[in-house]
Design brief:
Layout lengths: L2 H4 L6 E3 L9 H9 L4 E4 L5 H14 L4 E6 L8 H10 L1 H6 L15 H10 L4 E5 L5 H9 L3 E6 L2 H10 L3 E5 L5 E2 L16 H9 L6 E4 L5 H10 L3 E4 L1 H4 L8 H8 L6 E4 L7 E4 L2 H6 L9 H15 L22 H22 L8
Parallel strand pairs: 1-9, 2-3, 3-4, 4-5, 5-6, 6-8, 8-9
Antiparallel strand pairs: 7-11, 10-11
Helix pairs in contact: 2-3, 3-6, 8-9, 10-15
The chain binds flavin mononucleotide (FMN).
């Protein structure tokens, strides 16, 4: 691992920030305690809510951890498309006996207030999704001693991340569960996402800063592959979603390995931005015409998703999951980190033996 990361945590394993109540403080604490890097997700939270999570996490571990922010989104152009979508979802609202949410409930996600908290509080790592902060913001975080990481889904985005002054780029492949962290949402680029191994190689040949690889990684052997391709660490979301510490709904956890859910799909149906989830009725019915309008659609469907969960109906929930979901293990998070580290060591030893060298096991 490169020094900026190695100095912070011993194992090249990052637990992905997962907004929507999944990466709760006890999950992040368990991962950091086991030698990985635990992450809190501040997306959809207020600055106060994020601060409470940080306090709780600090109470549970002295090890380093990260906090993730969503970038504010540009004003969305076609408001009438959201109105049409609301009309199309009316049947869902009456089925789940709830109201559709107000699509205008919030666009910038309290970005400035959260940044202020993260500048004041010694949080070791701060990462960003859905775009790249300005050079000024990244500089001020660096001066305050924070390590900064920004998601990129293409080599061009990675170049912008390096140029803006981030310490680390998170290369997110198309396999990834949850939202693609594409900097600008461009419907014309739908379907052109890049697979993780190819993306790592492209990013490696474009930027010099360390790479954290994300997307579809469920086993230590895959971490070894990502490291061999040029990454310094791997960021796993779906693998940690299934742990008992994760705050994901029980139906969501069960669905990951339920043979009823045979595949994942990138969809705008729940939020208006492409996100990968288990294919279910809601995605099948509404995905084909959901507009590119994040976070308006997220707010619009919020009550629907909650009502579906309350009714125990996984077919109406956002079951975010990466392509590796079938490999999910229900191990406690700390144990999962240990198993992943052991698998990684075994894979590296096997690789070294194959190439005729002696393996160090890590
Ligand atoms: C339920 C869920 C929620 C997520 N929320 C966030 C988030 O808040 N911020 C972020 O940067 N990435 C988020 N992601 C994406 C992860 O950072 C990461 O790219 C992804 O989980 C990697 O793919 P995998 O799930 O196949 O491991 C989320 C992923 C999942 C599965």
């Amino acid at each position: 691992m490169s020094s900026a990361l190695t100095d912070l945590f011993p194992l090249p394993i990052v637990q992905a920030p997962m907004a929507g109540g999944v990466s709760v403080p006890q999950l992040a604490a368990a991962v950091s305690e086991a030698g990985g890097l635990g992450f809190l997700a501040a997306g959809y939270k207020t600055a106060d809510g994020m601060y409470e999570d940080i306090k709780q996490l600090r109470g549970a571990t002295n090890r380093p951890f990260g906090v993730n922010l969503f970038m504010p989104q540009p004003e969305y152009a076609d408001r009438s498309a959201v109105e049409v979508y609301a009309h199309q979802l009316a049947g869902e609202a009456s089925w789940y006996e709830t109201e559709l949410g107000d699509p205008d409930s919030g666009r910038d996600d309290g970005y400035d207030a959260k940044l202020a908290v993260l500048l004041d509080n010694p949080v070791p790592v701060v990462s960003f999704h859905f775009g790249c902060p300005t050079r000024d913001v990244l500089d001020s975080l660096s001066r305050a001693g924070r390590l900064t990481m920004v998601t990129a889904t293409t080599a061009e985005e990675a170049q912008a991340v390096q140029w803006a002054g981030a310490d680390v780029v998170i290369a997110q492949g198309i396999e990834a569960g949850g939202h693609q962290g594409t900097h600008r949402d461009n419907p014309e680029a739908d379907g052109s996402g890049i697979g993780l191994l190819s993306l790592i190689a492209q990013v490696r040949e474009t930027v010099q800063i360390p790479i954290v690889a994300a997307g579809g990684i469920m086993r230590g052997s895959q971490i070894a592959a990502a490291l061999a391709a040029g990454a310094s660490a791997a960021q796993l979301g779906t693998a940690f979603l299934a742990t008992p510490e994760s705050g994901a709904n029980a139906l969501h956890k069960q669905a990951l390995t339920n043979p009823l859910f045979v595949r994942t799909q990138l969809t705008r149906a729940f939020s208006g931005r492409p996100a990968r989830g288990l294919m279910n009725r809601f995605i099948r019915e509404h995905g084909p015409y959901a507009p590119a309008a994040y976070p308006d659609v997220h707010h619009l469907t919020s009550a629907l998703r909650k009502a579906a969960a309350k009714a125990g109906d996984a077919q109406g929930m956002a079951l975010w999951a990466g392509q590796g979901h079938r490999l999910a293990r229900e191990l406690p998070a700390g144990q999962l980190v240990e198993v992943l580290a052991a698998e990684l060591a075994a894979a590296r030893t096997a690789l070294a033996a194959h190439s005729g060298g002696g393996g160090t096991g890590r």
